[in-house]
Amino acid sequence: MDIQIKWFYRLGFLLLLFIVTFIFWKLQQVWLPILKVTMTILSPFLIAAFITYLLNPIIERLHDSGLHRGVSVLIIYLLFFGGVGYALYKGIPVFIDELKDLSEDVPAFAEQYRNWLSSIQKEAAAWPNGIKERIYDGIIEMEKAIDRFLTSILNGMLNVLNAFVLIALIPFIAFYMLKDYNVLKKAVWYLTPRKWRKEGVLFLQDVDQSLGGYIRGQLLVCVIVGALSALLLWLIGMKYALLLGFIIGITNVIPYFGPLIGAFPAVVIAATTSMKMVVITLVIVFTLQFVEGNILSPFIVGKTLQMHPLLIMFSLLAGGEIAGILGLILAVPVLAILRVGLLHGRVHFAKRKRESEST
């Protein structure tokens, strides 16, 4: 009887949670503007916290070797932000020029693709209606996909330029977070309720063990792949080499599907030059992916996630459906955190069950 009552309570709680979530979602016109303002304010702190998380292990190693923590922070800070600043100083003008050239060349590209599509349509005119309709629908969808892709890139660059003041704050916030890392840890420790401290520390340690090495290694691999892509595309005379290398590097963080997404814009632009350029571009992209998959990732990233590929693919499909490209990028880290959370939750509830049975 007690078991049935417990199940009724659980079902009632789930029903109430569903109703509250539904009402909250319907009231998004009220809380969504507040959330946007809050995220705008917090975004520099979140990015700085992420940079701190990436750099702190290196600083800890230098500090453990006998170097003063302040000196360690200053060295790594100058190397990281100096390197990033120099890359931006040299790369942003080229990047903007390539985007400007691309926006000016879009009408010519569109006209060239229309000529190709019209020739394909003429060839397909004698085909059966079902096949012909599918080809026409595929052509229309491809045009829409290209338009959406170019629009998203341009909008993203404009958003970055508009948020320049907030972005400029990130190095300063990251410096103080790195310098006062231990102070911040103590503050979080004392702000956390006493009964959650031990389990919270174990949870964060497991998340860091499962995810930390993967994120740091994957970011390094993406930088290497993106830089090599830009260099090789530039050497073969490809237009927008820096822009395309940046896209290939960013999408490389997405397991399995990333290389296809990154190769698509490069192949589309190469097709406006010649079929020879398309073949060379494909050879470059797939050669780099072979090197990344067989040399860079095993050596730098390793097998830190310990998750089945089917589970990773499922998370990628779910993330892409929910939040597009951003969802694809965040899918694996979120899955890793959920996995650790479920394991800790199972241990926690098993412990509580044993305690209730013993009393």
TrEMBL record:
Q: Which domain of life is it from?
A: Bacteria
Residue intervals passing through the bilayer = 7-25, 31-55, 67-89, 157-178, 219-237, 243-271, 278-302, 322-344
**Major location (coarse):** membrane
Query: Where does the record place it?
Result: Membrane
Protein's membrane topology: Multi-pass membrane protein
Q: Name one GO biological process term.
A: transmembrane transport
Any one GO cellular component localisation term in the record: membrane
Q: Does the keyword Membrane apply?
A: yes
Provide this UniProt record's keywords sorted from A to Z.
Answer: Membrane, Transmembrane, Transmembrane helix
Q: InterPro entries given for it?
A: AI-2E-like
Keyword Magnesium attributed: no
Spell out the Pfam families in the cross-references. AI-2E_transport
Which protein family is named in the record?
Answer: Belongs to the autoinducer-2 exporter (AI-2E) (TC 2.A.86) family.
The protein's name in its UniProt record:
AI-2E family transporter
